[in-house]
Amino acid sequence: MKKVLSLLLCTLFVLSFAACSKNKTENATTQETDTPIAQKTDAPATQQAETAVGTSNPNTVDNYTLGALVTINGETEFKLNGLRLDGNRSAPENNGKDTATTGIRSGFFLDERIEFYLDTDYRKPDSEDVKVLCVKHRPYSEYSDISFDSLLEEAAFTETFTEQPADASCFDPYVFSENFGEGNYDVLFTYKGEIVYYIVIQLTPETAS
After folding, report:
1. Confidence label for 57 from pLDDT (cuts 50, 70 and 90)
2. What is the pTM of this model?
3. Which runs of consecutive H residues, i.e. helices, occur in 107-177?
4. How many CB atoms lie within 10 A of CB 187?
């Protein structure tokens, strides 16, 4: 009888020891498994944040260069290959440059008449489809919330494209200083009410130069 009891006690002891060992193993496995999962969850979030910070979004970042012609939509019938801007009250060496897409003259005086020379193959004289507007500078992303009619109302000038002989300006508007102050202005080239090209220019008082 004593032998049977001893055998039973030994069996219970072995079973209890095995159960404890199993629980410890499971807990250790769970802890080891949880740690890498947490690390793996954090890693992609960090990478995404770094990617977001390092990415320039043209719809939210106001990034421009004075005198650079920016193409918004080059797939329309109106294609602008280059631009030249001259002024009627500036030093002669500032005028008469070749049409270009960068390095275009961008500085003018208030009330100075600006001559526009367009390098384009568009051949629809006096077409109402192509208009050039000049408005006070704003982040480009804001234009998506403004109607074309509103732009026409606020424009410092609005011109309709007219075909001219070679080396002749298409139009020569100027900005009235009493209505519009100094600062940066967006010149918008539009086709059927859609902005397709734009350039930023700067107007200053004549005493500033």
Report:
1. very low
2. 0.68
3. 148-154
4. 25
